[in-house]
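Comment thread on ticket #2218

A.B. wrote:
> Attaching the input chain for the structure job we discussed in standup.
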Amino acid sequence: MKNWRYFFLFGLLTTLIGLAINLSQQKDYQRVVVENSPMSDIATDNDGNLFRLPFSYQLEEVTSEKYRSGAAKSHTAVIVCQYQNQTERLEISENHPAKYYQYDFYLRAIGEAPSSKQYAEIILSHSPAQTIVYIGLITLIFTSLVWIIRFFPVEGSLGRWALVLALSIVVFAIIIVFNPMMRSKEVPPILRSTWFIPHVASYVFSYAILIAGFISAIYADIKKSSSTLVWSQRMLRCGTGFFTIGLSLGIVWAKEAWGTFWNWDPKETMALITYCYYLLLCMGTRHIHFLQSDVTTGKSRQLAFHLNVTIQFAGILFLILCWTCPQFIINLLGWSQSLHSY
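C.D. wrote:
> Ran it. Output below, let me know if you need it in another format.
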C-alpha cells in the first residue's frame, strides 16, 4: 500500500508543478475576427498590447445550432490559418479547441457585426508544461481507482453493503431531483462536453459515499463499534478517491472549455479547499493514533469516536459549500461571478 501512496504523491506533486508553470507562464491573446475579413497576424494580449503572431488567420464562417425553443445548442467557427504559404482549415467550438503552430484556439463568443457579417471572439493560448499536468492527472486518477478498489473488503457484512448502497442511491436521487441542470433536455453549449458526465458523476458518487461514511461514524459513536468505525474510515478514503477523479476531470474540462487548467473560480476554489480537507482527514485517520479505530482504552476510545464524528461533520459542511457555493461567500471573498453559473 505504501507504494501506491508514493505514486499518489508523485501525481499530486507533478500536477501542482505543471499547474504552477502554466499559471505563471501561460500567454493568452485575443482577437475579434469578422467573417471573410482579410488575413491578419495581429492579436491583443490581456493588457491590450498588440502582438504579432507567427502565422496569419481569418474567419471563414460561423454556424450555430439551436434547440426548438430557440436556446443556443452549439456554435462553430471555421478559421483558415496560413503559415509559409501553407493553409490549414480549423473548426473550433465550445469544448473543442483546435491546435495550430503551438497555439490553442478557443471560441469565446460569436455575434453579428454592424455590417451584418458574423464575428467570432477567438482566444489564442500558448501554454507550457501541458504534458506535465496530464501526466500528473493520469497518475492521480489511476491511484484513486486503487483507493476505490481497496474499499471492497475481503470480508464484510451484507447489511453494511446494503446500507452503503441505499444511502448512495438516496443521495444520488436527491441531487438529481434538486438539480434541474441534470434533468434539462436543453443543455447550454459549455456543458456539451465529453467530460461533463464523468466529472459530475464522480463528484456525486464522492458526496454519496462521504455522507454514508459520516452516518456510519455517528452509528459507530453511538454503539462504540470499532468495526463500524473502520468501515466509516474506509468510505472516507473511497469517497476521497472519487473526489480526486472528479477534480482531475474538471481540470481537463476547464482547459478545453476556458483555455486554462485553473481559473480560481469560486466553485473551483471551494472544491480545492474541500479536497485538501478530506486529504488531511485520510492522512489523519491513518497516522494520528487518537483518530484510529483500534484505540481501546477508556477516555482515549471515547475521544476517537467523538473526533471522527466531529471532523467528518466539518467535512460535510465543506461539501455543502462546495456544491452550492452560495452567493454570500462569493461576495464575502470579493470573487466575481462564477464561471459555473449557467
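A.B. wrote:
> Thanks. Noting for the ticket: The chain has a mean pLDDT of 82.
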